[in-house]
């Protein structure tokens, strides 16, 4: 039976080619240090954001694309451009009664701020009367009458209140608003004759 002294003696030497245990511990420590350095390098690479674009540049189009307006922008700019002013409409006839039988057209407008006469007011007009074929049958340089008193043909009573003082107008009137089926001897107006009246309202 082996004694205690024999048990406490060192064990038999290791076979040739096998390193001692101390060397294993040293190697393990070196491997641990190298692993830690590799992990630190990986963390540094993950933390390095210098190559990434700044946040304010993310989500924005390239500078060349941003400078060029899109289709919607071009349409908006085109809509903002002022349109050319329309040409003035030609002078139109005013259908006084709405039946086409008594019409008025302004030839020379009255001055700004001129007034219009009212029924019962005395007016002075320069009147030239012509047939439809252009034959002049009457001229009154200073015809004075009271509006609405039937002193003159109905065409004048109805058209003069629509004129400004100083205005010159052309009035075309059917015979029913002039001398009717009877016509007139002085001035000579044939029966059922429509007339053209050039009227200048001088005073009112």
From TrEMBL:
EC numbers on record: 5.2.1.8
UniProt xrefs under Pfam families: FKBP_C
Alphabetical list of Gene3D superfamilies matching this protein: 3.10.50.40
GO molecular function: peptidyl-prolyl cis-trans isomerase activity
Keyword ATP-binding: no
EC main group: isomerase
Reactions performed catalytically: [protein]-peptidylproline (omega=180) = [protein]-peptidylproline (omega=0)
Stretch list, region Disordered: 1-70
Acidic residues bias: start-end ranges: 22-50
Top-level taxon of the source organism: Eukaryota
Keywords: Isomerase, Repeat, Rotamase, TPR repeat
Keyword tRNA processing: no
Location of the PPIase FKBP-type domain: 120-204
Protein name stated in the entry: peptidylprolyl isomerase
Taxon lineage: Eukaryota, Metazoa, Chordata, Craniata, Vertebrata
């Amino acid at each position: 039976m082996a004694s205690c002294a024999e048990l406490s003696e060192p064990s038999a030497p290791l076979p040739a080619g096998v390193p001692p245990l101390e060397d294993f511990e040293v190697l393990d420590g070196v491997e641990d240090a190298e692993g830690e350095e590799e992990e630190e390098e990986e963390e540094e690479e993950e933390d390095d954001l210098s190559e990434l674009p700044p946040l304010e540049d993310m989500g924005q189009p390239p500078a060349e694309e941003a400078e060029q307006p899109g289709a919607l922008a071009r349409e908006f700019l085109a809509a903002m451009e002022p349109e050319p002013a329309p040409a003035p409409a030609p002078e139109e006839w005013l259908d006084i009664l709405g039946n086409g039988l008594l019409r008025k057209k302004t030839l020379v407008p009255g001055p700004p701020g001129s007034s219009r006469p009212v029924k019962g007011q005395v007016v002075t007009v320069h009147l030239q009367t012509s047939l439809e074929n252009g034959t002049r049958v009457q001229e009154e340089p200073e015809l004075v009458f009271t509006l609405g008193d039937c002193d003159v043909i109905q065409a004048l009573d109805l058209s003069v209140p629509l004129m400004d003082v100083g205005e010159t107008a052309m009035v075309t009137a059917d015979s029913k608003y002039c001398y009717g089926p009877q016509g007139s001897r002085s001035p000579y107006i044939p029966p059922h004759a429509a007339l053209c009246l050039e009227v200048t309202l001088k005073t009112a």
